Amino acid sequence: MESEASLESTPTWAVAGVCAVLILIALLLEHALHLLTLLLERRKRKTINQALYHIKAELRDFGFMSLLLTVAQQPISKICIPRSLANSLLPCKDAEPPGTFTEEESCQKEGKVSLVSSQGVLQLQMLIIALAVFHILSCLLTFGLGDVKLNP
User: Fold this and answer.
1) d(CA 125, CA 65)
2) Which of the 8 DSSP states describes residue 8?
3) Looking at the 3D structure of the chain, how many domains does it have?
4) Which domain holds residue 26?
5) Which stretch is the leader sequence (predicted)?
6) E-strand spans in 26-139?
7) Residue 93 lies in a domain
8) With a threshold of 0.70, does the pTM exceed it?
9) Which residues of the chain are modeled with pLDDT < 50?
10) Paired strand residues for 124
């Protein structure tokens, strides 16, 4: 099986292109939210505008948590805990014991396992992204239903 190419072997134009598309999407989303805020102000929907402000703040928090997890992925996976502690309070009885999929050899040398493996941090990031997406969808649905109720 061929290993995936790292960022070092990826052409700079490809990296720049992907970053440019992500920045463009972010700018378009920010502009759309700004237009929605102006529309709500014109329609004098003060409470919905406040709710939109809180939603943007929560999404900013989700993004910040994801960024922190990305930056702290290696230090988190290097925190070692005793194997007995890692086997306590598992969410599933039939789950694979911790440490089976870890790549952190420094902890294994000490007879311990990492607090959260690199793979676990990635899965946690995916959970945060899923929460953010469903949060957006539920808020849009709530906004839509509220607008239908106010303007029959």
Assistant:
1) 8
2) G
3) 2
4) 13-44
5) none
6) 80-82, 112-114
7) no
8) no
9) 1, 100-102
10) none
